[in-house]
């Protein structure tokens, strides 16, 4: 039944000197070409009987989709870029946040046969090269993370016609498609817990305030103090790195040695704070309680184990992938701006 190749689009590889085509698969299965194409491309808009018939034909004929030809037919590649705007050291070594989100995104794409390409936009040269790469349509879509302030790249990608989904966002850009956690509520959970533990002199180490997550966590911290009739004794600014947590914690102790709690806007900064407290002879949590944010593996491995606001990082990655696939397939979704709920994981540091 394979017959001769009448078209090359979505054709398979050679089998005994003949190219197995999508038309041959459809004829062998007794279905239309459109139905066969939908089955092979992962659509669920087919009957169970047609699904089984096409899969049987694929097995019996040895049909293998040609990725390059299929990309031409569908006018898109089967590759998605995950673009991160931070230093390489944070992506690969220091910050578990990124690996968890990428794992979730990969899991959400793999069933659709879509590959994930990681790109780090650290310098302006990186951004220029990346912009040219994306405009050349080498990828079907883009997932974006950790862009700050008025960085023009997210808007430029969207304006180029390349579908994009952000996790979080810079303060000066509001995307139409995004996934985030309720950062302000997460900070409120942290402060309420500290108040319940009898803490009254609570400071914060903020994240970068030109990332919306950093700004929202600071806002939630202040809101929760006001709710409990407390005035913030101090805050110090960090940038989601361990070094900034070390510097900020030392600043807080120098200015207010009577502190009895600190909320750090990331686990990495909280780990830096714990280092300073050990060095200064402060017992945690007896003298000073510490709460972080993310609940990445850093929290459980800290000494003492770190109480942390949990954001569901892998779920965020999967949701990013789901939204991007919906954009690529022009599939309606109920909500294009997802905000997930945080929870508090209590450990020995508080």
Q: Any overview of this molecule?
A:
The structure is a single chain. With 350 residues, this protein is an alpha/beta fold. It folds into 3 domains: 61 residues, lambda repressor-like DNA-binding domains (434 Repressor (Amino-terminal Domain)), CATH 1.10.260; 128 residues, Response regulator (Rossmann fold, 3-Layer(aba) Sandwich), CATH 3.40.50.2300; 129 residues, Rossmann fold (3-Layer(aba) Sandwich). It contains 14 helices and 14 strands. The strands form 3 sheets. Strands 4-3-5-6-7-13 form a 6-stranded parallel beta sheet, with helices on both faces. It has a 6-stranded mixed beta sheet with strand order 9-8-10-11-12-14, sandwiched between helices. Strands 1-2 form a two-stranded antiparallel sheet. β8, α10 and β9 form a beta-alpha-beta unit. α2 crosses α3 and α11 crosses α12. The longest helix is centred in the C-terminal third of the chain and has 17 residues. The N terminus is likely disordered.
């Amino acid at each position: 039944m394979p017959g001769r190749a009448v078209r090359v689009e979505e054709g398979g590889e050679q089998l005994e000197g003949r190219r197995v085509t999508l038309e041959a698969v459809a004829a062998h299965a007794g279905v239309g070409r459109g139905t066969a194409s939908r089955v092979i491309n992962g659509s669920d808009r087919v009957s169970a009987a047609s699904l089984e018939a096409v899969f049987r034909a694929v097995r019996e004929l040895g049909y293998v989709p040609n990725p390059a030809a299929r990309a031409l037919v569908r006018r898109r590649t089967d590759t998605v870029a995950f673009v991160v705007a931070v230093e390489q050291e944070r992506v690969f070594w220091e910050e578990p946040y990124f690996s968890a989100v990428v794992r979730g995104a990969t899991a959400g794409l793999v069933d659709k046969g879509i590959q994930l390409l990681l790109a780090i936009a650290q310098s302006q040269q990186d951004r220029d090269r990346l912009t040219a790469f994306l405009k050349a349509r080498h990828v079907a879509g883009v997932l974006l993370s950790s862009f700050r302030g008025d960085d023009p790249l997210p808007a430029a990608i969207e304006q180029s016609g390349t579908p994009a989904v952000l996790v979080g966002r810079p303060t000066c850009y509001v995307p139409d498609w995004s996934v985030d956690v309720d950062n302000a509520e997460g900070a409120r959970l942290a402060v309420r817990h500290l108040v319940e533990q009898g803490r009254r002199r609570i400071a914060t180490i903020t994240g970068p305030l030109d990332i919306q997550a950093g700004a929202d966590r600071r806002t939630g911290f202040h809101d929760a103090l006001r709710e409990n009739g407390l005035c913030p004794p101090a805050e110090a600014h960090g940038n989601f790195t361990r070094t900034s947590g070390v510097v900020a914690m030392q600043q807080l102790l120098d200015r207010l040695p009577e502190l009895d709690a600190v909320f750090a806007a990331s686990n990495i900064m909280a780990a830096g704070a714990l280092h300073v407290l050990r060095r200064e002879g402060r017992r945690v949590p007896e003298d000073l309680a510490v709460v972080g944010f993310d609940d990445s593996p850093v929290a459980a491995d800290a000494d003492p184990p770190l109480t942390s606001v949990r954001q569901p990082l892998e779920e965020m990655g999967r949701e990013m992938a789901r939204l991007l696939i919906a954009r690529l397939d022009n599939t309606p979704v109920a909500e294009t701006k997802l905000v997930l709920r945080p929870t508090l994981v209590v450990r020995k540091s508080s």
